[in-house]
Specification:
This protein is mainly α. It is built from eight helices and two strands.
Length: about 240
């Protein structure tokens, strides 16, 4: 997730490399990742319409491309979009988690961004926590502030995007500490410090993307505003 010129750089990134997690942690996270993907596939096939398939492809391509762009963080560090909350807002948690899993697999196999043996942990940390956690926090805040208001969408997305990055970083730090790679105090303090700021960049990018989509294609949201549904119905009836 970030690059830092220090001894602990490989350990203190959200994309965990091979060799930094113990076998029990690897096995548990792989089981969780496989279960997440399996359940998500079933839910997508059962509940999503065919129109969601091309949107999933577009969303995956956008998130993959956006993750290639780093933004600078003070102290010689850089961050990039994680995208879980963005995927959840547009696709819902199930399809969004599948998109994120595909992105992580491609990154691992083609760009060595994270290790293959720990791919399950990366999917859990950034896919399960980032997408599901981010989506449901966004959903709650949006409901409180106004389901059909832009303010509800943007405030919910900003808070959820920041939280998804920060919580994923803490979970990653705990995994590294359990594995004996880095002392818990060192891992949590470093991950929390840097990802506090990286989460701000995540929130800004997520808000910018959703704001643009709200103005141009609000019907693309997983739970679109009522005016978008009404406009779409009128366009179909006029044909």
């Amino acid at each position: 997730m970030f690059a830092i010129s220090s001894l602990f750089q490989p350990q203190l990134a959200l994309h965990i490399p091979d060799g930094f997690l113990s076998l029990p942690v690897i096995l548990v996270t792989w089981i969780l990742a496989i279960a997440l993907i399996g359940i998500s596939l079933q839910r997508v096939q059962a509940t999503y319409q065919e129109r969601a398939v091309p949107l999933m492809g577009v969303c995956a391509a956008f998130i993959f491309a956006a993750q290639m762009i780093n933004f600078p963080i003070p102290g010689g560090t850089s961050g990039h979009l994680l995208g879980g909350t963005l995927a959840g807002a547009l696709l819902g948690p199930w399809a969004g988690s599948l998109v994120m899993a595909v992105v992580f697999v491609v990154q691992t196999l083609l760009f060595q961004d994270g290790g293959l043996t720990v791919l399950g942990a990366n999917i859990v940390n950034m896919g399960l926590i980032g997408t599901f956690g981010g989506y449901y926090l966004y959903k709650v805040i949006r409901s409180v502030l106004g389901q059909d208001s832009l303010r509800g969408v943007l405030v919910g997305a900003a808070i959820a995007a920041w939280m998804s990055v920060f919580v994923s970083a803490i979970v990653c730090a705990i995994q590294l500490a359990i594995s004996g790679t880095v002392p818990l105090a060192v891992a949590i303090s470093a991950m929390a410090f840097w990802h506090f700021m990286i989460g701000i960049g995540e929130a800004i990018i997520t808000v910018a993307a959703l704001s643009y989509i709200w103005r141009t294609r609000p019907d693309m949201f997983h739970r679109p505003p009522r005016h978008a549904i009404a406009d779409k119905s009128r366009s179909y009836s006029a044909r």
